[in-house]
Amino acid sequence: MKPSITNALTVDVEDYFQVAALAEAVSRDDWASMEYRVDNNTDRLLALFDDRNVRATFFTLGWVAERSPALVRRIRAAGHEIASHGYSHQLIYNQAPEVFREETRKSKQILEDIIGESVTGYRAASYSITARSRWALDILCEEGFTWDSSIFPVHHDRYGMPGTPYGPYLLEAPNGGTLTEFPLSTCPIGKYRLPIAGGGYFRLYPYWLSRWGLGRINRAGQPFIFYLHPWEIDTEQPRLKVKALSRFRHYNNLDKCMSRLEGLLGDFRFGSVSDALSGVHISPKAVAV
Hints:
By secondary structure, the protein is an alpha/beta fold. The protein has 10 helices and 12 strands. It is 36% helix and 15% strand.
């Protein structure tokens, strides 16, 4: 029997050539010339979610939305939640604040123009809101976002803000604004927090470990948030020449992701981020990060 807790199912809508792990092989100027595969891969996920009668949140890159407005409309027409994934998938801590603000405003407007609704949720590229880029939280508040899912409470070479809360909470940005934060999920193993929210971790770990770790979060009475990318179910995507670690991070177990996702949808109850947050009591006392 599935746990009664509704967990957040999320998709970061970006193409294979836009990820940080492949940036050494593909520059931003090359994107327009790359084979474009995100439409078909996202449609495969939409078909699966429709078959399982599950709704999700799709964090959609502005660059993709500009090229595939019909895809964004299909996602929304199927009953899913649309949120922003920024515009150009650049690491925030490598951007100037004024550039981040411009791109954040632009991507939000693109999505809102396509679906005719307000977009109030955000996720940073590669979870790149860290101690170096706390200022981005102020900009999100000022640009009209009310909730975020960008903070990974772990140590990692590209992202992470260890020491921040592990479940949904009210976040206080440096200038005093607030956002509801749904951090990426981690599972306690002794004093260690195992990152287990999805993506490369979902492909790396055996499925039983993901199921156990995510189930442990539910057994503690909390929802988890799970993420994946459309390219993670695409075994036919072009293989780009990158360093060994980047190659492993991107291509490891692509052939297992879809079957594991099908199992996950059978083992847990899912909805959008807003669905999951509606079942959580969040303290009105904001946590400064």
